[in-house]
Amino acid sequence: MIAEVIVDVSAYPIDRPFDYAVPAHLETVIERGSRVKVPFGPRKVIGYVTGLKSESEIEEHKLKKIDELIDLDPVLSPELMDLAKKMARETLSYEIDALQVMLPAAMRAKYEKFISVEKLEEIDDARVLAALNGRTRIPLKQITDPDVLKLIKDYSERGIVSVDTAISQQTKVKKVRTVHIGNSDTLAELLLTVHPNAKKQAELIRWMLDHAGETIEAAKLLNESGIQNPVLKAVIEKGGATEAYVETYREPDAPKLLDTPIPIRLTEEQQTALDKVKVAADSGKAETFLLHGITGSGKTEVYLQAIKHVLDKGKEAIVLVPEISLTPQMTARFQERFGGLVAVMHSGLSAGEKYDEWRKIHRREVRVVVGARSAIFAPFENVGIIILDEEHESTYKQEDTPRYHARDVAIWRSEHYGCPVILGSATPSLESYARASKGVYTLLELSKRAKNQPLPSVTVVDMRDELKEGNRSMFSVQLAEAIRLRLEKKEQTVLFLNKRGFSSFVLCRDCGTVVQCPNCDISLTYHRSNESLKCHYCGHEEPVPLVCPECESEHIRFFGTGTQKAEEEISKLFPEARVLRMDVDTTRQKGAHERILRQFSEGKADILLGTQMIAKGLDFPNITLVGVLAADTTLHLADFRAAEKTFQLMTQVSGRAGRHDLAGEVFIQTYSPEHYAIELAKTQHYQTFYNLEMAARKQYGYPPFYFITLVQFSHEDLLKVADFAEKGTRYLKNSLSPETVIIGPAAAAISRVNNRYRYQCLIKYKKEPKLIETLQQLIRMYRTNWMKDGLLMAVDMDPTSIF
Ligand code: ADP
Ligand code: ZN
Ligand code: ZN
After folding, report:
1. Contact 662/622 with Cβ under 8 angstroms?
2. Is there a contact between 98 and 397 (Cβ–Cβ < 8 Å)?
3. Is 717 left (phi over 0), alpha (psi -120 to 50) or beta?
4. Where is the Helicase ATP-binding domain (predicted)?
5. What is the pTM for the complete model shown?
6. Quick one: 99 and 116 in the same domain?
7. Residues 572 and 472 grouped into a single domain
8. Among residues 169, 187, 210, which one ends one of the domains?
9. Which residues surround the ion ligand 3 when the cut-off is CB under 5 Å?
10. Is the CB of 266 within 6 Å of ligand 1?
11. Within this chain, do residues 147 and 237 fall inside the same structural domain, yes or no?
12. Residues annotated as binding site for Zn(2+)?
């Protein structure tokens, strides 16, 4: 028997299966999707069996043998194996990367280099002997002295020592030590034989007599009996008890409560939506629904009942939510309904906890998974429904290879299982809504709030007027007044200051003008180094104007504000207010995010000030005011999706206020009050926004009218990166169809990261049959020739942002 194996080496040209002989004793157990340990060159590596066959083109005596089968059960089903292949192709990544991304990180192998001494007698250097310290095999990383390393290298060349790589699995199955206490006869007999000085042993045996025949966790036994472990060991040795190690799960959450949910009567709109999903679920055909429902319209209730329907038919459900809204509040709703059938996967879990949740799914101990992006690969084999809540969120796209979008993966998997996908959002992505309008997806609408609460009242504040009135603070008079009122009434305020991405722009404080690229309808990016404005789509460059091109005001300058500065201003304006700040700086520690939210929900602060982190998931009854300090930071992102992102964000932020009994009020401060994304956020008219934005996208040729692919280059040397970018772009221009538009190369908006200069080029196309093939060839050129020169190149088939 021959196995085809994809090995754990992400390098060209290894991205293909290699043949290995299967040892006779493994023939009956090895399967497609099994992990194996195989020799690869001088090393041992982990690999995935992608196929089994009886013949190989390689001569038998040259065929290497599989060393070891790692798992008795294959870790990946045939469906996921096929999916990996497809994903690798569609995202232009290595198949090994596609396979690994489907498994919890804890299952990825760790490779460690070891030095083995072959001929100890020939080692003559005292420093090397000291480093070995009597051992004949040590991890290479223990040697830090460069001189000693050099000597080791010499020895290795002379065959005195050898260096090899060993594989270690990062996380193991957690086991708990349990003690089974003997029967009372045995114990009574034992008590008579213990030495009179062994008082503690006698004490333990007496304690055990009261628990004869029981099985108890060792830690608990020691704790309750007040005895030390060596004493327990002695008693076990004498036959008073036996011990065992039992497999267990790390429990990340509090015990799950299973209470009978109060049956909710669905609204008419909810019922219509649910019925359509049920019909699809029963039909056995894949169908994608776009559930467009305003905030609070009861989308989650529709998900819950649809899941119930498929569970009753013996199937499984995958629910994706954006990482940041994967709050305890959210997961509790699923656990209340489905109890212990739910596994939760989010980045707050340790590697071991994630591994345990994965094992519960793999063993079918749960039937629903609620998780962030990577939960889309849940190893279920009878999927009945897949749900993506807040489907417009960019976190569903992985920014590293494999650059997959969870929405695409969801649809691929649904086609395999013939099951429905629900994409839910109050502000769907333009792509999804366009597909729904064309009938590719089935549109389901929830236009009213489930509990009939009114939407909060939204006021747009023109910051240009504030400046004219002489107010130079970050707070308009109106917003400051509203905050003061909340402080008096002991109600809570959320202040939102978006600092998304890194792009910065130049804005006229008198008229709100932001200088745009004449070719691309994109804000120009400010470059401090030479006081210039650049378009990183097409490369257009111009000097920073001294006066506003529209109104000739001199108040035109770099725009940027941070949360720290805002916090200082708040404490000046409202010295009595208790403020919590939530941004990347204050949430670096594990659990900090939850802690801040808990403090706020417990009323320990009056004001929560934060970045986009606070836009979602906040659902506290006492929040009655939401302030957006500067809507302009998103509106003028150097990104063709700037307006869409602004509209989504404003809608979401507004949804934080007045979700319960107290009415909510929202203030949006901006220098561009007349922009349609701001204007329409006031009324939350998605349809109108969609129409206007689609017209703009059509005019400038952006998605969803065109597809785009981004190719990024980076190098430590500015001249080199420019040269490679030029070469790459030229190759694309020569190979692709004339209708395809290739923009650039141009410096990226963030032109330098980690001392590497960044360039990029953008491919826009409607139909480009040669695209994948051409990009594969470009990647081949990069991997075989350019990489050696220190170039890094990345291809993103459907970028979410273009920084
Ligand atoms: P969304 O997910 O669309 O923001 P939710 O599902 O969170 O909305 O619903 C908002 C609130 O309305 C929740 O408190 C939910 O329990 C409640 N709710 C949902 N559907 C109904 C219904 N049919 N009748 C009464 N309350 C409902
Ligand atoms: Zn101006
Ligand atoms: Zn441009």
Report:
1. yes
2. no
3. beta
4. 280-446
5. 0.82
6. no
7. yes
8. 169
9. 517, 519-520, 535, 537-538, 540
10. yes
11. no
12. 508, 511, 517, 520, 535, 538, 548, 551
For CA atoms 50, 52, 56, 59, the dihedral sign is positive
Domains of the chain: total: 6
Q: Kindly give the pairing relationship between strand 368-371 and strand 316-320.
A: parallel
Domain CATH code at residue 8: 3.40.1440.60
Looking at the structure, tell me whether residues 427 and 298 fall in a common domain.
yes
Q: Are 304 and 210 part of one and the same domain?
A: no
Tell me: do 92 and 135 sit in the same domain.
no
Q: Is residue 555 part of a domain?
A: no
Total Cβ atoms within 10 A of residue 228: 11
Tell me the C-alpha distance between 794 and 803, whole Å: 13
Whether 510 is in a domain gets the answer no
Ligand 1 contact via 729 beta carbon (within 6 Å): no
> Where a domain ends, among 247, 282, 306?
247
Indicate whether 359 belongs to any domain.
yes
* Spatial separation of the C-alpha atoms in residues 534 and 518, rounded to whole Å: 11
Instruction: Please give the Cα distance from 80 to 102 (Å, whole number).
Output: 8
Verify that 618 and 672 share a domain, yes or no. yes
For residue 298 and ligand 1, the question of a CB distance below 6 A is answered with yes
Looking at residue 735, which CATH number applies to its domain?
3.30.70.360
Distance 453 CA to ligand 1 centre (A): 11
- Kindly give the distance from the C-alpha atom of residue 479 to the centroid of ligand 1, in angstroms, as a whole number: 30
Average pLDDT, the chain: 87
How much distance in Å is there from the Cα of 763 to the middle of ligand 3?
14
CA nearest 316: which of 275, 281, 270? 281
One domain, residues 132 and 188: no
For residue range 37-62, what is the model confidence (pLDDT) as tens digits? 999 988 888 999 999 999 888 888 88
Q: Which of 494, 498, 666 is nearest to 597 (CA)?
A: 494
CA-293 nearest atom, ligand 1: 3
Residue 59: inside a domain: yes
What are the pLDDT digits (tens) for 245-297?
877 776 654 434 444 456 688 999 999 999 999 999 999 999 999 999 988 88
Read off the tokens for 530. 């030479």
Task: Give the distance (Å) from ligand 3 centre to CA of residue 638.
Answer: 10
Contact 14, 59 (CB under 8 A): no
Exposure letters 340-378 (e unless 16+ CB within 10 A, then b): ebbbbbbebbeebbbbbbbbbbbeeebbbbbbbbbbbbb
Ligand closest to Cα of 467 equals 2
**Domain limits for position 336:** 268-446
